[in-house]
Amino acid sequence: MQMLKEGEEADAEVTWEDQQNINSFSKLNARLDQIEEIYQEKKKEKEYLEDLESELELADEDELIKYRIGDAFVSLPLEECNERIASESAEISGELDKLSAKMVDIGKEMAKLKAILYGKFGKSINLER
Asked: What secondary structure does DSSP assign to 74-94, as a single string?
């Protein structure tokens, strides 16, 4: 196989293995989109919890706070609300770390496939997002 000069297009036949690489890249790309969407939702949820935590700093210690659990609101003491918020925030941070690691792993796999496919097909294939 020879190297392509700049501006040349490859006239390569697509083998079964190439098609499998293209399919794998497509699946990884779709999975990355899903994970990025979940990541953004979790990030927004964490921001809401941080805002809530800031608001509760202004609340009276003796006051019962309406705290959402599932679809219902329950009146809880301020201290318990702060504990629950801290717990949920830590849980979401862990989930964000896991999602971020998954995105990095998928990105690495996609980069390998991109190198293989661009090496064979050159400008004949578009793998950019």
From this structure: EEEEHHHHHHHHHHHHHHHHH
